[in-house]
Amino acid sequence: MTVANMEAAISLRGMKLQHERFALGPIDCDIPKGMVTAIVGPNGSGKSTLFRALLGLEPILSGEAEVLGTPLNGNQEDQYKSRIGFLAENPHAHENHLAADEKAKFASRWYPGWDWEKYRKLLRHFDVDGGVRLSKMSKGMRRKAELSIAMAHDPELLMLDEPSSGLDPFAWKTMLQELGRYMEPGDRTLVLATHILEEIKRLADYILFIYRGKVLGLYEKDRLLDDWRTIVVQIEYARKDGSEMLQRTPGFQGLTEAGPGLYRLEVDEPERGEAYCRDNGFQVLAVQRMDLEDILSCLIRKEEARR
Amino acid sequence: MWLPIRIDEQRPEPLYHQIEVQLRGLILGGQLKEGTLLPSIRELAVSLKCSAITVRRVYQDLENEGLIRTRQGTGTFVAGVGAVQRDEHRLERVTEEMEKAIELGLQLQCAPEEIETAFRQALHRKSKERGGDVT
User: Fold this and answer.
1) Which of A220, A270, A289 sits opposite B51 (nearest CB)?
2) Is B14 within 8 Å of chain A by CB?
3) pLDDT tens digit string along A20-61?
4) Interface pTM (ipTM) of the complex?
5) pTM of the full structure
6) Residue-wise DSSP of B70-91
7) Looking at the complex, does the CB of residue B18 fall below 8 Å from at least one CB of chain A?
């Protein structure tokens, strides 16, 4: 899956990983540079494993993976990672005894681009006291501290695994502002795994749907929301071939029978789909945009049917 | 800067189209004066909850129309709009809205004469309300 005319920050070609209980891939996709890509999928789809693989923490079984131009072949230098900022889904227990400032001090030695000024600004904006031990902080407070550390070297690629978990609505807003500011120069890339639809709506340019370790698709968000529609149609009850006819609708994605002669049709070519319904004697009762959740469940249903 | 642009998710028009029409209207209607600095692509995207790709497309279209100008490193500005262009836009907008009303009239099986009468009466009434003397 590729995005036209776009330089890729992350490029995966048939990448496969194998755990004891979990297989990821083969994954083919290009995550575009300068853009925000949200990774969306049910729990256990492989989002966190994918992040770990991109950080070189999971051996790649087959296929190719390239991050910021560095091929991950098992022999890659660790240097590319200094251009990445990463926030893991869960805090590391071995850092519990550190104060935020102490963790930042470690980070400052490892990242050439480290900027104390930026770190302090982020802490101030998030209203975090850097002198407090990470284990003494509330979940949300620690999240804000760790996010500040992940961003303080102004990385080329920022990867956030469920960044907003534990944040109150005010901190969440601050985070959106900071991430917007981070993207401002136009050459930064943000990849985030999240379940929060509002976050995806506000931040994402692209959405990567994954499910059971497989990519269901990489979509431009606004196109997705523009194109996918539910069409509610009705036909005389006596006609038995209604559902068969509807399955041939242009852009057909899904169909449920809502009552006698009443159907909910899901399409990704709304105009042609609607015209088809009218031309075939259906009465169009309503046309509505679909939510991301509904689109995702539709894609999952299709994938399940294929398995 | 904040722009009074509203996206209506119930409308069938694609997002980029909704944004483009409104921003063009703000420029041609004179609410945004020549030289005004527009928000950056990312800023506008975040505030409208749409993607940067969509905003970039809008900016590109309006730049091609000569309504805005991008200066490398400094940002995107409103360009000078000629009086002719502004007048054309005014008439276009009015025509568009009238077409919608006429369409509704025809849908309701009104005869052209009835629509014409209704138009004259509405114009007369509205002008009176505003204290004008159009007959």
Assistant:
1) A220
2) yes
3) 778 888 999 999 999 999 999 988 889 999 999 999 988 888
4) 0.81
5) 0.85
6) EETTTEEEEPP--HHHHHHHHH
7) no
